[in-house]
Amino acid sequence: MKPAPFGYADPTSLDEALTLLTEDGAKVLAGGQSLLPLLSMRLASPATLVDINRIPGLDSVVVTPSGDGAGVRVGALVRHVELLHHAEAAQVQPLLARATSNVAHPAIRNRGTTVGSIAHADPSGEMTSVLALTGGSVTVATPAGSSAVGWADFFVGPLETSVHGPAVVTEAFFPALPPRTGTAFEEVSRRKGDYAVCGAGVTVTLDEDSRVTSARASYISVGLVPEVHDLTDAVVGQSVDSADWTAAGALARTLVDPDGDLHASADYRRLLVGVLTERTLARAAQEAQNR
Amino acid sequence: MTTKLMGEPVRRREDLRLITGRGRYTDDIGHGAAAAAFVRSPYAHARILGIDVDAALDVEGVIAIYTYEDLVGPMAEPLPVLIPHPQLTAPRTGFPLARDVVQHVGEAVVMVVATDRYVAEDVCDRITVSYEELPVVVGVDAARAAAHAVHEDVPDNVAARHHQETGDVEAALAASARTLSFTQYIERSACMPMEGKGVHAVWNHDDSSLRVHTSTQASTSVRAAIAAKLQLSLEKVEVIAPDVGGGFGVKIVHPWPEELLVPMAAIALGQPVHWAEDRREHFISSAHEREQRQEITVGYDDEGRVTALDVRAWHDNGAYTPYGIIVPIVTATQLVGPYAVPVYRVRIDSVYTNTVIVTPYRGAGRPQGCYAMERTMDRIAQDLGLDRAEVRRRNLIQPDQFPYDHHLTFQDGRPVIYDSGNYEGLLDKLVALVGWDRAEERRAEAASRGKQLGIGMAMYVEGTGPGPYEGGHVQVLGSGKVLVSTGLTSQGQGHETAFAQIVAHELGVPIEDVEVTTGDTRRFGYAVGTFASRAAVMSGNAIALAARGVRAKALRIAADVLEADVDDLEIDEGLVQVKGTPGASIPLRTVAVLSNPLRYAFDEAARQATQFAGPGDDSKPPVAVGDAPGLEHVDYYSPIRSTFASGAHAAVVEIDPTTWEIDVVDYAVVHDCGNIINPMIVEGQVHGGVAQGVGGALYERMAYDGDGQLQNASFMDFLMPYASEVPDVVIDHQETPSPLNPLGLKGAGEAGVIPGTACIASAIEDAVGRRIAAMPISPTELYDLVRNPDAERVPAAPTGVPA
What we know:
The complex is a heterodimer. Helix content of chain A is about 30%, strand content about 25%. Chain A is α+β, with helices and mostly antiparallel strands. Chain A has 2 domains: about 1-55 and about 105-170, Uridine Diphospho-n-acetylenolpyruvylglucosamine Reductase, domain 3 (2-Layer Sandwich), CATH 3.30.465; about 180-290, CO dehydrogenase flavoprotein, C-terminal domain (Enolase-like, domain 1, 2-Layer Sandwich). In chain A, helix 7 (about 115-120) packs across helix 8 and helix 11 crosses helix 12. Chain A starts with 6 loop residues before the first strand and ends with a helix. The mean pLDDT of chain A is about 95. By secondary structure, chain B is an alpha+beta fold. Chain B folds into 3 domains: about 30-135 and about 190-285, Aldehyde Oxidoreductase, domain 3; about 290-465 and about 640-785, Aldehyde oxidase/xanthine dehydrogenase, molybdopterin binding domain (Aldehyde Oxidoreductase, domain 4, 2-Layer Sandwich), CATH 3.30.365.10; about 465-635, Aldehyde Oxidoreductase, domain 4 (2-Layer Sandwich), CATH 3.30.365. Helix content of chain B is about 25%, strand content about 25%. In chain B, helix 9 (about 365-385) packs across helix 10. The longest helix of chain B is centred in the C-terminal third of the chain and has 28 residues, at about 535-560. Chain B starts with 14 loop residues before the first helix and ends in a 17-residue tail after the last helix. The interface between A and B is medium-sized, with 24 and 29 residues. Chain B: GO terms for molecular function: carbon-monoxide oxygenase activity. Chain B: Its EC number is 1.2.5.3. Chain B: Keywords: Molybdenum, Oxidoreductase. Chain B: InterPro entries: Ald_Oxase/Xan_DH_a/b (IPR000674), Ald_Oxase/Xan_DH_a/b_sf (IPR036856), Ald_Oxase/xanthine_DH-like (IPR016208), AldOxase/xan_DH_MoCoBD1 (IPR008274), AldOxase/xan_DH_MoCoBD2 (IPR046867), AldOxase/xan_DH_Mopterin-bd_sf (IPR037165).
């Protein structure tokens, strides 16, 4: 379990990094929590690792509480642990802390980057689903310049994004939670900190009379790419205290198309989608009343 | 007295070193050595057509490449069958490097030596082995069906048919008031020590000697194997087990191919060579355990007393049988546990599959046997509507029945005669400890929280401390330091502490003065090894006997010097003194100096000793006939047969009926390993065992696909429980000394793991009311079980209600 030979460069500017990335087989190294095991098992053999950790300006969390661009901008070098403990970010978009608390274990959260896990596009990753559920986007820097790419255009398949050629995902943007909206996030995993067998992140929006106007969910380890499922039809107009969350869970089960693997059958995942949907929607709705 | 340390929870003296990164493992030894890496078979069953190394030869840093063609003499022969048995009629072992056919994914085909491990793996990548794929056999049922043969010349795939019986079981079943039959499965798991295997070999050309450090449980036997296979004289080979990061059985197998190949390369190349097994290698080329299919028929009377037991089982031994049929024998003989079974027959076929070999993993066949017997007890209880605890109670061997002869032959070839025990005492303590009688109350309380609660129990008897022998050497130096060595090895059990306690206690010295060395053939040449919960029983008693020998000699010398009677002397805190006469004393260290008539005054101790040295008796030689210089003694302990430890576990599980997640909320253990040297170490052993029991019951399996590919060969997908998955364990001890050995000890190493699967299966079944017929079980499987309309429903039986 030793990596094949690879080159290593640690540029100190984005331009330099992008130049290095024009070489064949160059790959970005940020937190390394997914990439390095792949290297060690020789499942990936990049020619060069372009370590972006020395590039200034990629390590900040910028919180915009309201107005245009309200939300949280997370730089490419921000570690999961920072989001987990970022009180301002949690105010504006509570899903960030809720989801990152489910990302692996402390040692991995200390090194792994949130943007890196999004760029890795693993459908078992928490932050890919959170990006989708919040309607977020990423900023992709290429030699031609930087541009924002919405989540739906970014995720193409398991471990595959729409970004090709020399590029660095420099930032992820998670829009602020709308008013009268609550969130919840929950996973079932075989062991604490494992990849979820199934996870659910949800948002529920209420009107002034505490009636449901929107209920949306995104799942972890279900499907090939993150998806957002609108469950509003099952509960629209219902009062927060008497809404039929079970019906929403049942609806969710019909919308997903999970696969089976060593740890869970497709049927079991579908069961969990229903259970977790029901549980998380009820909690999110309660929270929405107070926002 | 401060030096009486037996039974005290002395803190483990090795821990500071081990937990602060100052352990010295094989991978810490010999920096700069050349590194070995292996090309291993990617196929479960294939014929090797050719090996092309041309592209590998220009990699900068390659030193040597070895294939079967490079093996000479005994190295070109199959690896040894360590433990032959008359019923092992078709033993098969591989070669150090595969000759013509590979029998499992991971079998070593080529060894590469290079300047470092990175380069060695680069070289491996450039070697092309061409194969012709052959049909693959995976799982006991496929092996038994024998549509294909693993070994061409073993068409039925049966390595051994193990058979023991204590009477006419068919007649006894026919005469039984009631009978029931069932079939169940148990899956594979593996030892998974934190440190994989590792070997470092240095050839000293000047004196033609070989020094090997290896992460083994049996250094003396590895030494003998290397000497034989590499055709070296035994005294030219030293084998040392340094700090070893866990063994749990896998490192008792020897010689592993790498333990021969790495020294072979070191000699051939004239330079040190090192190999450290990586985790993937450990998964696919070390050893697994546990897979069996069990068909059980039991006869019993209307009160639930067993009248006859007939067990037919198939044991998956993997591709080869280097360790013989120890595991199925242990299953067969330990299955009956604490119960009086009037007539018992067991037939186990040990069958070949194209998978990693199966050799002892902590418990070594006992978890499977316990699973068979304890699930049988549960079924009898359910059939009769009796409390499961009550049915067990009615079948227990009674305290006045010891020694109890089961009329079976154990793994060591000796009779299964239980030396001592108090099984009813265990059951009483367990019922109290877990609150068995409050089960229905707790079930109702859990139901009010939306949870399904279940409780289960399992009892076991564990044959521990088999022979043939271990030895101990104790030596007191002039500095007062007491050197202790034994040949068996340590893998983190706390031997340094426990053995030091024994010596400090027996000799009357401060424990701080005692230094323990294990598993180093330079210090002790005769040993068997660390397995079968035998270290405390075997080396503990040998060391105690050696310490007693030293004490006798010390008292003899001191009596002479102090002009006192030996019987009037005592040793405390390292001082030999005349009882009741303060001042009439001599330090033990001074006795040590006096024990050697050659006393150059190199140090203060020797100078001090001269004050005691009398003129000597000119009529006698300085060293008396039959005596020897030095204050040291070697002794051996060789038992007549194994001692039998015992215990009882109970688990309480809560199941979420929406997600079918299984939470072990309580786990209670009552444990009897005879006299206890150090209760803290025993409890640590129990905790670790329970963790592995929980792993085996709920998390761990070897997910082979039909092609013999291990789908979960990493810690990402092979789920060992984290601390967060292991319940808090409450422990109660019972001490029933063994009459067989001087210290009254029984082994404690494996006990914690044995009843885990049986006990947790019982609890889950109790919670969900569906029959559990295969373990381990995961939430996704439990979901399948409860929604399967054909799943057998378990009749309700009262728990905790005296019947």
